[in-house]
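Ticket reopened. Same input as before:
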Amino acid sequence: MRREIPLILTGIVGITFFIQFFVPHSPMRELSETFSDWYSIISAFAIWLGALNLMKISFEKVYKKDKDWFFAITTIVTFFLILIVGLFFSGGRQYLEQGSGFDWLYRNIYSPLSATMFALLAFFVASASYRAFRARNAQATVLLLAAFIVMAGRTPFGDWITIYLPEGWRLSNLSNIIMNYFNVAGQRAIMIGISLGVVSTSLRIILGIERSHLGGE
Amino acid sequence: MGKKVALGICIVIILPLLIWLVHMKPGPSSISYPPYDLTAISTPFDTSGSVTLNWFCLEGDIDSAAVFPDYSILRSQEPDGPFEKIDSVGFESPRATDISRQYRDTSASMGFSYYYKISCDLQGQIVESNIFGPISPVMAAEAAGVEGMVEATDIIVFPPTQLKVFDTPNDAGGSITLEWKVSASDAAKSLLFNGYDIYRGTSAEGLFEKVGETTGGVSDVDRQMKSLRDGRDILNGQEYYYYVAAKWDSQEANSEIAGPAVSRQQWFHTGRGVSLVLLGILIGSILYFINRAKAGKELFIRKIAGLEAVDEAVGRATEMGKAIFYIPGIQDMNNMQTIAGLTILGRVAKLTAEYETRLEVPVSRSLVMVAAREIVKESYLNAGRPDYYNDDIVYYLTDDQFGYAAGVDGLVIRKKPATIFYQGAFFAESLILAETGNSIGAIQIAGTAMPAQLPFFVAACDYTLIGEELFAASAYLSREPKLLGSLKGQDLGGKLIFLSLALIFVIIATLGAFAESEIVDTIQRMFNVN
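Engineering reply: fixed in the latest deploy. New output:
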């Protein structure tokens, strides 16, 4: 029964959502809204599972003085800092308002840290591009050329070096052709494959053929 | 082979026919919109009774132009004429807006109906407007008890016209849709235009109350129509009447009352008929191949390099005595990519249990943590090593995107795993994670259905499961006949449909470019799922 009940529930909910997409009449909409609400409620409760797990592992690391236990202290301190400030020193339900303690932590600690991580992407793009665009064979050379045209075509420099060519042959135009035709064709082919994969996987799950996400073979 | 060809031909021929049948209903009727778009109303608040005409300026009739020919105002009492010139509007006459003009016909007599048109002589070429009428001047001011409120030069706000109200199609009731041709004052795009108020009543003669308002502008540019859905306290089965008021500066102009409209629930969403047909064929194909696989028919599935490399990657980590990291993306269990990613986790966990290799699964969602634990636990049990399992294999870091990326990067740098799997839904953090893994020399296998992240994974990882390959992983790795059957059905049924459709519609669209664009528009409308 441990596996059958989740399979039955999955089947019922999956079929309900499927029918609701085509049948707007009652009770399909109400049912699908109810199921969505249930999911939100379960997710909300599950957040505690994650938070408690994070604290349990962090406290264990500190207690056992595991390798890199100092990082666990950082996790514990910041976790309780934002929790306590948010709950008790930010004006209750107005904790999101500008000027509250929670808002101060968000603006001055969380946002800069997030932005820093995001900013790293620029350097990673540079290093990944360097590797990807090496002309090792014919295909990689085509990739390199396409990349050059697109990158140069998106800057004034691209048109400046091709200003003497007819308008259709300027880099900005060639860049648009690559992006609007070759790129879109490839992206759409991938999207069609993905859509088919999603339909097929959904069907397998709804019918109970796919069980590996429940821990089965 | 013959059967396959026959199946292909059937799909190619029957499918477009089915789709055509589903979409046999005609498209929305279009409303003519001639260059002038002449409209006329009985001038509100005019004690003597007059008719005000509004039209759009011809090309070149702009403030900065040096000179432009006069517009002739033509009037008749019959729609077919003869039209006689009653006046002319010169280039320097005041404009209603930058792009429209108005003229007040004070010579029109009450009790008579008139037809109007505008003409302009552009260097010998007479350009005429549409004929508007019949229209009769009414002494509106007397009814209102107000005199002399309108000067001859005042700009008059024109009401919305052709108001239609109807039950919103394809919904569960509780909503009425209004559609009207925008006021001539709105179409002229003046800053003085303040949008529309919507009034509703339960009888044509009864009390109307304001139930909403909307800004100016059109919803459908071609038809110059604006539409609005009223879902405020609408009862199914109740009759409703509406009118719409256009607001201009301090003036308001009401449309005619339209109705009744009755809201009802629909049993089938007609806009999704094509989806149902395509989905039906796809599902039929999948079920057919599942049955074939169950009957013991051998099915050929092409090799997927990324999945072939799973054993090699786990083996490498075992030889090196290092850990394996498994990153199931940053989305929750309601995302199909996460589920597909977790199915691969089962296979990886079983291998690590067999090889006694350390596995770590840092996750960013609590529900994913719970599901992943179940999967890993079951895999260890199936491998005969339940003693090797502990809950700390799968642990939660944070829901935050970059917090999670920072956490995983830190773990990767400190623990230097030999193998990293990225299987699931990823966003901007994909390259941050993959490049960090690359920098420590880990063998990396990625899989995602996020097209924007695929180039990053291809650049930074050793193997990448592209889109559908991620969803095929479970069937491919387990070699379960039923799962393989579904894969075959998806490949043959689904791809055959889409390739056939793509081919047919590329031909039609290409022909449409040389002939009528109406064909292409019709096809686009057919496949527009809403």
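The longest strand of chain B covers residues 239-248. Chain B touches chain A through 84 residues (CB under 8 Å). Please confirm and we'll close it.
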